[in-house]
Amino acid sequence: MFFFFLGAREPFDSPELERFAQALDIVQRRYPAMTIGQLSTLLRVGLVPEGEGQYVSVSDIVAHSPGQKYPTIARQIDQLGDGTEKNPGLRLLEKESDPEDRRGRYVAISEQGKNLL
Fold first, then answer.
1. Which among 29, 27, 50 is positioned nearest to 38, based on CA atoms?
2. What is the reported pTM?
3. What would the pLDDT profile of 19-44 be if each residue is shown by its tens digit?
4. 28 vs 35, 96, 104, CA distance in Å?
5. Residue 6: what are its φ and ψ, rounded to 5°?
6. Radius of gyration for the chain, computed over Cα atoms and rounded to the nearest angstrom
7. In this structure, are residues 107 and 46 in contact, taking their beta carbons and an 8 Å threshold?
8. Segment 54-85, tens digit of pLDDT
9. Phi, psi angle pair for 102, to nearest 5°
10. Alpha-carbon distance 117 to 110, whole Å?
11. CB neighbours of residue 88 within 10 Å
């Protein structure tokens, strides 16, 4: 959906850029409806440092997403997780609620998401 690497193209001069293009191609084939915003949110959750635990708060993700609002990130997380009644999710994230504060939400990469990353 967001990929500009469709069709025939020349290889990139940079090996890093070529690997990035290959990674985008893999994501596009497995999840053709995924948007660049969803991929960005998935990567932010996946880049949580090991020492900080598996789950990260949605508020922290929003804080590290310049220009993104909480409702946008929350919607992307829903789509990357279990989805909604009308739209099934991609099941790449798992969600948890804060037991001490029901408003607090935490997310982690699911096994399926780890396989993709």
1. 27
2. 0.77
3. 888 888 888 899 888 888 899 899 88
4. 9, 28, 32
5. -75, 150
6. 15
7. no
8. 788 888 889 888 888 999 999 999 999 988 78
9. -60, -20
10. 10
11. 10
